[in-house]
Amino acid sequence: MAITMNDKVLSEAFGPTEGTAKIAKDVALVIAGIALMTLAAKIRVPMWPVPITMQTFGALTVGAVLGARLGLFALVGYLALGMLGLQVFTGDSAGLAYMAGPTAGYLVGFVAAAGVMGVLARRGWDRSFAHMAGAMLIGNAVIYLFGMPWMAYLFLADNGAAWVFQYGMGNFLVGDALKLVLAALVVPGLWKLLGSK
């Protein structure tokens, strides 16, 4: 069955669609996704109650723009580089020890959420503010679905459920809402620039 413009994700709306040129484009898009994730991890925005990074924005946007397949490749590549010790994560930490720390569940959640965002984008959820905002809510929920159990495993016994909620999710909800609005403006806006609705 042929893919129409309505079935495409944003990265498929331009450039070659078959052959070696498409493969080269896909590789370039995956590398760009990894680069965006690395940059997003290094951006720290002063916020209350805690500073935020743009990692969740990066993961969810990469999934929406690249689609499930390329989005998963980009996020798995990003995590693999971090496991190998490259400084792609927030701060100066990397390697297997970092991957087993408090953020481990969230990092795995980025991969799953990128896949979910890609599926939703293919169904047209990235074309309007309201649908993209809904997709971002679902994507954020997926990240917390992976992140919170790992936080609970590490800290529940010593600190209690209220602490795990506050430091695992509560402190980040304001930042998540702002990133949701940003993505809900940016991705549909890019579709409008392409002249496709």
TrEMBL record:
Its main location: membrane. It holds the Pfam family BioY. The keyword Protease does not apply. InterPro entries: BioY. Keywords: Cell membrane, Membrane, Transmembrane, Transmembrane helix, Transport. It is a multi-pass membrane protein. The chain crosses the membrane at residues 57-84, 104-121, 133-157, 177-194. It is found in: Cell membrane. The keyword Transmembrane applies. Belongs to the BioY family. This is Biotin transporter. The lineage of its organism: Bacteria, Pseudomonadati, Pseudomonadota, Alphaproteobacteria, Rhodobacterales.
